[in-house]
Amino acid sequence: MSDTTNNFGPVVTVNGGQGNVGINYGTVGGPAGQDAELRAAVEELVRLLGELRGHLTPDQDRTVEEVLPELTPDREALRERGLVLARVAQIAAAVGQVGQPAAEALGRLLALTG
């Protein structure tokens, strides 16, 4: 007879030890606070870009429309999307003072992605 085990999710075996808290999905002692901060920074930038769109040329607005789906609270993905973030920075700079809040939000987001 064979032992067939079908596991549909995490399987943990704990043999002794102290202070076992279960599976850490990034919320116990992990970077959850950082992730919340990153998520808030992305949401703020998206909101500010939405407010900025009324001041953009049709080409700039189209670029922002293309960029918005790329702005995710994923540190690695944002690091890989440097050109996307550079496009956002160029647009924010091009519209001058009205783009300043978006440029500052972008700076905070870049600081979080390291």
Report a brief summary of the structure.
The protein has 114 residues and is an all-alpha fold.
Q: What's the overall geometry? A: elongated
Class by alpha and beta content? mainly alpha
Q: Over all CA atoms, what is the radius of gyration? A: 21 Å
Low-confidence stretches: 26-30
CA-CA gap between termini? 54 Å
What fraction of the residues are assigned to beta strands by DSSP? Answer: under 5%
Per DSSP E runs of 2 or more residues, the count of β-strands stands at: 0
Please summarize the sheet with the most strands: none
Order of helices and strands: HHHHH
Helix content: 55-70%
* Nearest-integer average pLDDT: 81
DSSP helix count?
5
Description of the molecule:
With 114 residues, this protein is an all-alpha fold. The chain contains five helices and no strands. The chain has helices at residues 32-52, 58-67, 75-80, 82-94, 100-113. Helix 2 runs antiparallel to helix 4 and helix 4 (82-94) runs antiparallel to helix 5 (100-113). The chain is elongated, with a radius of gyration of 21 Å.
Keywords:
114 residues; mainly alpha; 5 helices
Element layout with pairings:
Layout: H1 32-52, H2 58-67, H3 75-80, H4 82-94, H5 100-113
Helix pairs in contact: 1-5, 2-4, 4-5
